[in-house]
Design a protein that fits this description.
By secondary structure, the protein is α/β, with parallel strands linked by helices. The chain contains 12 helices and 12 strands. The strands form 3 sheets. The chain has a 7-stranded parallel sheet with strand order 3-2-1-4-5-6-10, with helices on both faces. The longest helix has 19 residues.
Length: about 300
Amino acid sequence: MRVFVTGATGFVGSAVVRELIDAGHRVLGLARSDAAAKSLSATGAEVHRGSLEDHASLRSGATMSDGVIHTAFIHDFSNYGPAAEADRRAIETLGDVLAGSDRPLIVTSGTLVVAPGRVATEDDAASPNFPRKSEEAALAAASRGVRASVIRLAPSVHGKGDHGFVPRLIGVARDKGVAAYIGDGLNRWPGGHRLDIARLYRLALEKGSAGARYHGIADEGVPAREIAEVIGRRLHVPVVSKSHEEMADHFGWIGQFFAIDSPASSAQTRARLGWRPTQPGLLADLDANYFEQAKLAVPRER
């Protein structure tokens, strides 16, 4: 298949591109900059210049392809509403092109606020109160003859090159001199390795069903305290509890996410697609690979 990939040079998208090419697919990758175009060309992918806000580029990329994998998102948490709206409009644009064709469209979402306090499953609908409307847009496309499905990612997709939540937590611990968790630290974070996640995208592309939700979850729920304990041990700093009142001052914007209890299961995904994670889990990867990296900012892939 010739597959159009948005976010093709991002943390997850670049792994998806490699997985697709290794499996014999041809990739047309969306590139916003010269650097992104050069990086894509080096992988053997075709370059398609454009961005999430350039709907003409999205339409032409989808038109030229047998299927679309949408991993791009503008990770600007200070302007999350506009970022979520840009994502919704991009999915609608891609869906318009693919309507009536039964071509696959794989859309990215998350598990973080699907079912706080209990184990979220693929049967759970997206939270109606969450600004990101990826899933609603995908289901609308499925109703118009697109083989659209959703892959929900853990808040901590981990692996080499991670710029997300876990490096932020490490950065806070370095700055504050303590590795902290919130309350009793028993709230759970699910996790998945980017290479396992990349294989899931390929399986969803090849075998996925219209309207399906798939969970890219390897670790169902790692207690936040255990994450802090690894960080504290590796940085040689104390591990402490912070109250919910202290949370914002200590962690900044990431605190509200780190406090959520959001375990998730991938049992249905594994049964339906034959997906089996094989990479190291979150704690093992964190311990082995995260403390040689410089402190990094969250990227703004478009």
